[in-house]
Design brief:
Layout lengths: L14 H9 L1 E5 L8 E5 L9 E6 L33 H4 E5 H8 L6 E5 L7 H10 L3 E6 L7 H6 L2 E4 L10 H4 L2 H9 L3 E7 L4 H11 L7 E5 L4 H18 L2 E2 L3 H6 L6
Parallel strand pairs: 3-5, 5-6, 6-7, 7-8, 8-9, 9-10
Antiparallel strand pairs: 1-4, 2-3
The structure holds iron/sulfur cluster.
The site of iron/sulfur cluster has 11 residues, from loops.
Length: 266
């Protein structure tokens, strides 16, 4: 991890603002070895599947989906959130405070400037991500649950928005997870794809209703099998692929599960 020296990022005009941005902190997910969850891999989902990418995983989420595969970003001991695994995590063991400068140093180890900002729900820390994008040149994708609308400057800077609206199958009440106005605004940017996790054919009615009310073009809708293991992926992929074909929508695989299994940091 980097030291505390500041400056040297890409010749911006206001050195004072540079230093203050570099010193800003973000709460990242923490790997078991204590390092931040920042890793170089292939994007496993959506439009850019297979694309070499550096993932930066922030901690914290404003939802608590029962099948979430990154529940170590929110499912703390002492909370009554329900997760299908039954597990809980100690908050202090799962969060790492990193400065923007330290994140810039960490990602500079990789031969890649396509960055995926993920979580948890990364938009909880929108300001810190904006600072990072200001200091780091590259292509930025964000993965969000579609409940929070970022500011206009953020929307202008981000290159690709991967929205994953949550359905009833998440176990979250509709008033928390369903924000058609936010989805409509994101769709209007032209930068957003909408990836729905499908666990059963019944989920599709809900997807159609939500997509219609948010005016999401079919070309930007991806159906992805609910899966936290290769076995579950293989069990669900057939009917989800059929649904996608039947309705002229995109199918999204979960390539990282096939290549690496259900592991952290891949
Ligand atoms: S919104 Fe995403 S990160 Fe948050 S609980 Fe649901 S699946 Fe997990």
């Amino acid at each position: 991890m980097a030291g505390k020296q500041t400056g040297g990022y890409h010749g911006k005009s206001d050195p004072g603002a540079q230093i203050s941005r570099a010193d800003a902190t973000m709460k990242l997910a923490r790997m078991p070895d204590g390092s931040p969850e920042i890793f170089y891999t292939l994007q496993g989902e959506g439009r850019n599947t297979g694309r070499p990418s550096v993932f930066i995983r922030s901690s914290l989420c404003n939802l608590h989906c029962r099948w979430c595969d990154t529940d170590y970003t929110w499912n703390w001991e002492g909370t009554d959130f329900v997760h299908e695994s039954g597990r809980k995590y100690r908050r202090e063991e799962q969060i790492l405070d990193c400065t923007i400068e330290e994140i810039c140093d960490e990602v500079s180890r990789f031969p890649c400037i396509n960055y995926v900002l993920t979580g948890g729900e990364p938009l909880i820390q929108e300001k810190a991500w904006s600072d990072l994008m200001e200091l780091l040149p590259g292509h930025f994708e964000i993965e969000t649950n579609g409940t929070l609308l970022p500011s206009e400057p953020f929307l202008q800077r981000i290159d690709q928005i991967n929205v994953s609206p949550k359905l009833k199958n998440s176990g979250i009440e509709a008033s928390l997870r369903s924000k058609p106005d936010v989805l409509r605004s994101l769709a209007a940017t032209g930068k957003a794809d909408f990836k729905f996790v499908v666990g059963s054919a019944e989920d599709f009615d809900e997807i159609q209703t939500l997509s219609g009310s948010a005016e999401i073009p079919a070309a930007h809708i991806f159906l992805m099998p609910k899966a936290n293991s290769v076995a579950e992926l293989e069990a669900n992929q057939g009917f989800v692929a059929e649904l996608a074909q039947e309705h002229g929508l995109n199918y999204s695989d979960r390539l990282h599960l096939r290549l690496f299994g259900a592991k952290r940091g891949v």
